[in-house]
Structure formats: C-alpha cells, structure tokens
Amino acid sequence: MQKNSYLDYKRIIAQLVSGVLAETNIDAEMIYGLLEYPPNQELGDLALPCFQLSKVLKKAPPLIAAQLQTQIDPAPYFAEVQTAGAYLNFRLAPEPLITNVLGKILECGSSYGAQNLGDGEKIVIDYSAPNIAKPFHVGHLSSTVIGNVLYNIFNFLGFISVGINYLGDWGTQFGKLITAYKKWGSEAEVKQGLIKELTRLYVKFHTEAEADPTLDEEAREWFRKIENGDEEALKLWKWFKEISLEEFQRVYDILGISFDSMAGESFYNDKIKAVVDELKEKNLLEESDGASIVDLELYGMPPCLILKKDGSSLYATRDIAAALYRKKTYQFSKALYVTGMAQSLHFQQWFKVVELMGYDWAKDLVHVPFGLVNLKGEKLSTRTGRVVLLEDLLTTAIQKTLEIIEEKNPDLPQKAQIAQDVGVGAVVFGALSVNRIKDVTFSWEEALNFDGETGPYLQYTHARACSILRKADFQGETGINFEPEKLNEPAALKVVKTLYLFPERIIAAATEYEPSIICRYLIDLAQDFNWFYHECQVLVADQDLSRARLVLVSAVKTLLATGLGLLGIKAPEQM
Ligand code: ARG
C-alpha cells in the first residue's frame, strides 16, 4: 500500500519522538495517534499530550514533555519545540511548509490529495434508492448526495467505488397501487399526471383502506400476483416503473449523478428462494403465526421477518439476497448502506442474520445513517401527500439564483448555466454541511446567502480566485520559482496551514463516512483566503511578491475546485 506522499507533520513528529524513545515500547504509530492540533495556535501548530506516555514511562507527563523537548532537534521542519505543562508543542518552520505544500499543489493540480490507500479494493455503496411510484422527495436527497460524496472520495483515495441505486421497485405497495388504479384510476389520467397521479392514487388507497380493510387484502393479492409473474400485474408494475424512472432521471441529470448499477429490489425476486433454503438448511428459520422468521432474541432484537404468511418476501429478505449477490459479484471489502436513521434496526437485524449464516464478511456491512431533512420545520412524508418534490426544490433554487444574478451581475455570460450550478450547489451543500446524524432544516435565506457558510459562498470565493489569476494572466508554470519567504505574513501563512490539512481531512471524511468534514474544511479555507485577500493586495509592483501571492491564490483555487468536485458541486470560474 502506497502511503501518502504528501507532507505529513504528524508522521515527522512521530518519527522524531519515537526515535528518542527507541528504548521503550512506544512506537511511531502510537505517537501519531496522540498528536493534536491545539485549539489555540498561540501555543503551537501541533501538540503531543504526554498523559498516555506517562502510563508507559511511569513518569509525570510534564517531566516527559520537558525531557523530550531537550532531546528533539526541531530543524528543519520546526521553528521551535516548547512545553506547556503536559504538552509538547511544535511550531512549524514556515519555509519548508510553504515550499512543500504550494509546490506540490502546483505540481499535482486537480489530483492533489488523491492517493492509493485503497489499492483497488472495492467499496459498494448503496444510495439514493427512491421508491417507484412515489415521488422523489427531499428525504431522498440526503441519501443521494451523501452516497455520491462517499463514492467520489473513496475513488479519490484509490478504492474502486461501485455505486448502486437499489430502487424500491418491489413490495406490497405495488399491490396497493394496482388496487387503487383499478378502482379509481385510468390510463389517460396516469399518462397525464404521471408520478403526481400515482401518488394521488397511493394516498387515496390509504385513506380508503382506513374505512375498508378488505382493500388491504386485495392489495396483498395483487402483489402476490406480481411475485408470481401474473401478466396483467407485471405489465402495470413495469409501466409504473418506467414513469418513475423517467422522473428520477431528470433529478439525477440536474444533480449530475449517475450509478454503476440500477439493480433494484425486484432484481432479487428470483434469488429469494435460495436464501430461504439456505436459512432453512442452516437451521435459522422458524415459524411464527404462519410467517417465517429468524429469531434474534438472543441479540436483544425483534425477529427478522423473512416470509409473510402468504409466502411473499420482505424488505429484509431482499436485502439479504442482495448482499449475498453483491459479495459474489463484486468481492467488496466494504458495503455501505446510506439511508435514514429510522432504518437502523432493519440493518442491524439483517446484518446479524448474515453473520448467523456464517459469513465473516458480515462485519464489512456498514449502515451509514442520517437525520431528517425539514423544510421550514415541516416533516416530509408520502402518506399524507404533503411532500416537497426534489425536482421542485431544485428548480426553485435555480430560479432564485437567477434572480440574484440578474440583480447583482446582469452582464454575466452564461447566466442560465451558472444559475443552475449555483442553485443546485446551494441545495446540495445545504444537505451535506451538517453532521449527517443531525436533522437538517433547510431555509432558502440561509442556503442562498453568498456570505454565509454555504455552497454559493465557496463557489463565489473560487470565482474570485479565478478572476485574480485571470487578471494577472497567471499560468501554473509562471509560479514554479517563487520565493517562499514572501508569504511569511500571518494571513498568508494561515492559508498555507489550512491548505496543508486537505489530504488529512479527506481521509477523515472517508473514515467517518462524513461529508460534512469536507464542507467544514472548505469553509475554513475560503474564510482564511478571504481574510488574506482583505489583508494583502495580490497585484503589486514587487514582481516577486506578486508571484508568490499568485501561487497562493492558485493553490486555493485548485483545492476549492477539487473539494467542491468531491461534494458533487460545480465550480464555475465566473459568477
Ligand atoms: N428504498 C428504500 C427507502 O426509500 C431505501 C433502500 C435502502 N437500501 C437498502 N439496501 N435497503 O426507504
């Protein structure tokens, strides 16, 4: 495995310290894991807390820090090494930092930060997965955009991402839909209203079924017909699916997202029997009120339902069949499932069943949950029909952005395209920027604020950097020989230190399956850059100073574009 070839101060310190402690059983890995970025940079740029070392060395932490300080030679990477109580603090020497980070960004361009940590291992990512005949609503936005970021960053880190859109195209709800269609719908109305009409029928089914439970019976019967390949049932099901896919595709086109596989739940219909047989053979299947279950009481969970009384399969059954198939097909080293938190128990249950079946790779199945998306405090649900469609949300965002552009910069070329890039960027960033476990409340004022912590703010900062470089007619080569000491003032140095963190933050985002780490990082970078821009004029009479500052601007531009790209957000050069 090729370890990263980027400047890594933690690695350097780990080697220095473990070198000094060679006689003990403290190794570089342990030191590496202990290093922190102090919240207050007055003290230093990196700190080694000595509490843990104290347990091994049987000495007081401040004493260890003091001894290490006298034994470590800071040059050339550090300007000084100081102690503060139990901490050993390292201050970076500016020149190697500047030369190294900026030189490498200039050299690597858009591949800066990419590395081969995955060594070609496959990561299967199951995301988006909207349900056929239901609207693609804002709730599916999170899954779609989080999954897409994971897809991008794992590829960036040398894994092979496999993106799977596990469409919800199977299940009792299709029985409900056919029942409703036969009772209250018509071909003409569906052709006219498309998903909106299908949703109307679905909602009507639920209201009517409350008064008349025989409708549920009818719906189950229709779904059984689908499972058994009844011609009329299948024909209707296919038709509803086509209508839905067309609508979904419009949304994916706006978002610029595509998948390696669209194998939805129905794809596994013919693979269910083998799973059920295997469960029987392994003595895991039990009867309960006529249904077939796997008992999970021993693990503190309710039973996992495998087959209903009438023999039809369930959500978990199809997920198990899909996991077995994916393992065989892709030989994944990890399989991620990006869904709302409400499904946590479902995943715990069937992951356990796979484990009980004797598959050690059950440990490689990971549920990546996220919180709810609210729009101005309103919950989004399908049954009540009060849903905000993702497509409407995106088109509104684009429209609102266009209005802002008309007002602020009416002569901008390619206005429509830029309004699309920025409007979509605002929505996508809004869904990604909060820690994924937390609920998101989406508000237009916030998402479209060009000065707030938003997608448009990042895009605007990127465009500003582009415009400076354009004015100076700066090309990458022009910068190669710049004088690092010209970037010694605090505002410039702050930017370089933030640039330095990029590769590390990408890895953290991948390790924690947390796109918001990249969002936070890019906001920090943009804010540092805007402070620098405020403090330091770039185009000045001193040619060498100008060149050094332009190199900095160009590096910021490169990483903003790369970061936005990983988030699935466009980075227009002008706006
Ligand atoms: N279609 C499901 C839903 O909308 C999500 C599917 C998630 N993936 C999975 N393998 N279960 O709730």
Structure in words:
By secondary structure, this protein is α/β, with parallel strands linked by helices. The protein folds into three domains: 9-92, 2-Layer Sandwich (Gyrase A, domain 2); 122-282 and 314-379, HUPs (Rossmann fold); 390-435 and 446-566, Isoleucyl-tRNA Synthetase, Domain 1 (Orthogonal Bundle). It is 55% helix and 10% strand. The chain has helices at 9-20, 28-34, 51-57, 61-71, 94-108, 138-156, 172-184, 187-211, 214-227, 231-255, 272-281, 315-330, 344-356, 390-408, 415-432, 444-447, 455-471, 476-479, 490-500, 502-511, 516-535, 543-567; strands spanning 46-49, 78-84, 87-92, 122-126, 160-164, 285-288, 291-294, 304-307, 334-340, 365-370, 373-375, 440-442. Strands 5-4-9-10 form a four-stranded parallel sheet, with helices on both faces. A hairpin with a 2-residue loop joins strand 6 (285-288) and strand 7 (291-294). Helix 21 (516-535) runs antiparallel to helix 22 (543-567). The longest helix is centred in the middle third of the chain and has 25 residues, at 187-211. The radius of gyration is 28 Å and the shape is globular. The two termini are 41 Å apart. Residues 379-385 have low confidence and may be disordered. The structure holds arginine (ARG). The site of arginine has 8 residues, from strand 9.
